[in-house]
Amino acid sequence: MGDPYNSGMVAKISQEEFFSRIRSASVEVLTPEELESLIHSGRVQAYIGIEPSNVLHIGTLVACEPVLLVAGAGFRVKFLLADIHGWLNDKGELDQLREMASRNGELLLKMVRARGIDTSNIEFVYGSSYQFSEKYVMELMRLAKLVTAAEAKKAMDTISKKDVSHRVGAEIYALMQCLDIAYLGVNVAVGGMDQRKIHVMAREYLRRMGYEKPVAIHTPIILGLDGRAKMSKSLNNAIFLDDGEGEVAEKIFQAFCPEGETENNPLTMIVQHVVFPWLGLVEVSGKAYESYERFLEDWRSKRITARSLKDALTEQLIKILKLIGRN
């Protein structure tokens, strides 16, 4: 396939810099050595699953950053539009979820184009296109014979809705997410830290079933604008990829932002995990910060005020959303 470091977002950078970007975009990689081996062999096939419960919010940019880097390096990436998973998680009826999945697929494609990535490396797959097939169900049953109910339930603790977590459907959800990795023919699974237990389970049991043990890349979970829980439409604490300028400005103005603090501060998290990866810098009150560390120095010393950060973040988030929207 040629040199993966001479195309896309990682053009003309070293392998060391590529790994540095992956590490910056993630909390952990299971394991860095395994990922390095896949890259050297040119066999990387990565995926991320997107449950189509609502319109995508900016937390999706954080979760997708590693797959954008991988695709930009010339490797193939699959986006699973997980309509069946959403149905099992009681996020709506199948027809509604398929419609939302289609809308989200369009937004994901815009996101890819906005980063200048070759879309020929990208594939979108609906869960419903294969998860009811006889072959898939047979493999699911084979996996079910290996995994205990307690293991599957524990893996879903941070994913399923509270009123769904005690149902068998939640455990089926966990098994399906494991099997999807093998069934889609990928060897790198990307997801937030809330997916960690499922990916660890997949690494163990897919190997026992004769499949390749996947690499797992885990990204940070972005706090909602209230600073209390992760970003979610149901909690009214999110900025969506289709929000207008006025909506963004109003939401940022009202956001929780303790001056000089980074603990449980959603706005500094957005600066680190959204603005820097997308724009390469953050500009506050006319001063450009080309590293998050430099920004933190002035933020913690209160040379940057909460008001000036909110003004700057509003402007730069609008810029990112416009970039996505016009692609």
Report the biggest beta sheet as strand number plus sense, adding barrel if it closes.
6 strands, mixed
Domain module count:
2
Spatial order of the strands in the main sheet? 1-6-5-2-3-4
Mind telling me the CATH class of the largest domain? Alpha Beta
Return the structural class.
alpha/beta
Strand content: 5-15%
Q: What is the H/E order? A: HEHEHEHHEHHHEHEHHEEHH
CATH architecture of the largest domain: 3-Layer(aba) Sandwich
Q: What percentage of residues falls in helices of 4 or more residues?
A: 40-55%
Provide structural commentary.
The protein is of the alpha/beta class. It has two domains: 4-219, 3-Layer(aba) Sandwich (Rossmann fold), CATH 3.40.50; 233-325, Tyrosyl-Transfer RNA Synthetase (Orthogonal Bundle), CATH 1.10.240. The protein contains 13 helices and eight strands. The strands form two sheets. A six-stranded mixed β-sheet has the order 1-6-5-2-3-4, sandwiched between helices. Strands 7-8 form a two-stranded antiparallel sheet. α3 (59-72) links the parallel β2 and β3. α10 (245-254) runs antiparallel to α13 (306-325). The protein is globular, with a radius of gyration of 20 Å. Mean pLDDT is 91; it is low at 1-12.
